[in-house]
Amino acid sequence: MQNLGFSLIELLIVVCISAILASVGINHWQAQKLRNELEITTKQLASFLSEVQVKAYTNNDNYYLYLFVSPWCLSITQGEKPQSCHQGLLQFIKPDNSVVISGLNDNQSATFWGRRNMAKNISFELSNAIGTSKIFVSSQGRIRFCRKSSYLTGLPPC
């Protein structure tokens, strides 16, 4: 008898193994996507804060950072809190991802003083389903970020 191809059982086994491997790969890809979103948003926010600090130092002005929620964004002004995020001098608008911010409420503000390149002590926590990262601004104006979760390999540990 000639063997002209694969049997139905052999094809079903290959399809089942392929489906299992695909489901594992998709879950890993989604977790990696969440990790990347958190790392990138953390680094972008730290870069934005550095930009504000340089602007305050260069112009020798005081800048105030205010948080707006749903979807969250940060706005920089030289005085009172603006009505919306888009009315400030500079804005950090959250990218379209799953990252949420905590540590600064609607009534608080972070302050960058131009004189001597100083700032008000403040920290932010950024988190999503995969982990948490933290951004610190010290009174000397140093901006640091770290990971609170061991899954974020692109950030230093806290």
What does this structure look like?
- The strands form two sheets. A five-stranded antiparallel beta sheet has the order 3-2-1-5-6, covered by helices on one side. The protein has a four-stranded antiparallel beta sheet with strand order 4-7-8-9, covered by helices on one side.
- With 158 residues, it is of the alpha+beta class.
- It is elongated, with a radius of gyration of 23 Å.
- It has one helix and nine strands, in the order αβββββββββ.
Question: Topology of this structure?
Answer:
Blueprint lengths: L7 H52 L2 E7 L4 E5 L12 E4 L6 E3 L7 E4 L4 E2 L2 E6 L4 E6 L5 E5 L11
Antiparallel strand pairs: 1-2, 1-5, 2-3, 4-7, 5-6, 7-8, 8-9
Task: Please outline what is shown here.
The chain is 33% helix and 27% strand. It is of the alpha+beta class and 158 residues long.
| Total of DSSP H or I helical runs spanning 4+ residues | 1
* Spatial strand order of the main sheet: 3-2-1-5-6
Round the Cα radius of gyration to an integer and report it: 23 Å
Mean pLDDT: 86
Q: Main beta sheet: strand number and arrangement?
A: 5 strands, antiparallel
- Oligomeric state as shown: single chain
Which outline best applies? elongated
Q: Fraction of residues in helices?
A: 25-40%
Percentage of residues in strands? 25-35%
| Structural class by helix and strand composition | alpha+beta
